[in-house]
Write a structure and sequence with these properties.
Layout: H1 2-29, E1 44-46, E2 52-55, E3 58-61, H2 64-73, E4 77-78, H3 84-96, E5 109-110, E6 113-114, E7 117-122, E8 130-139, E9 148-161, E10 168-172, H4 176-189, E11 193-200, E12 205-209, E13 215-218, E14 221-227, E15 239-240, H5 245-266
Parallel strand pairs: 3-14, 11-15
Antiparallel strand pairs: 1-2, 3-9, 4-7, 5-6, 7-8, 8-9, 9-10, 11-14, 12-13
Amino acid sequence: MERWHIAVALGAMLTAYGLLAYVVLPAAWTHHEHQPGLAVRPMTTQTKQGIPGDPMNVGVVGSLADVIQAIHAAGWYPADPITLRSSIAIIGSVIFHRPYDNAPVSNLYYDHRHEDLAFEKPAGKSANARNHVRFWLVLEQGAEGRPVWLGAATFDRGVGLSHLTGQVTHHIAPNIDAARGLLATDLETAGMVEATYQVSGIGPTFNGRNGEGDSYYTDGEIWMSRLVAAAEKNTAPPIVLRPPRLVRLKDAVWSRLGRILREGRLA
């Protein structure tokens, strides 16, 4: 009889674990309800060689003109296309510490195509260090009836050699949530945002690796900004659509873990 009770208890524990780990928690972490069309989309870019690249961590909702006008108003510059001239210019910028606000960015790929738009914000006298973001048009018409763009925002901390290919490249800073936050804040400060909300990205990641072998950490959320139309400045604070309660709890815990990770890397 005791063995039967043990077997029943063990079966109940395994059933509870299965439901929690494979049904309840995955459903609780996911909050695509603001943009259902993103639910089946991958959330990581790739290099031309098919190596996983930077994860998606930002998004904007609006037409092509809305996106370009809003990011320009936020103080970010469009990246020049990669040409022989721009390649020589960025090399000169890094070596001779000359400004190049529109320096090109290397291509990353999503849905078998490179980025549709790329923008940057200088973080020094040259193109050696900069904030930058690549955007892809993912939904022609999202839940709000407007185009939805997903982006990968990172901070280039300096030029070096790729850990995976040996090619000359920029290395990113590991705290990609900070890069995401800077762009979102700049857009809000410029009055270019009507509403903000989160959708699920790659999920909490302690030690991710991008296409150059650089490590990163993130809470795994994508911060979405619904942009104003025609750059008509919004003078009121953006509407904030809060994520599910469990996601808010995870974000709070991750905020503490993020500080520990930063302190550990700076020690």
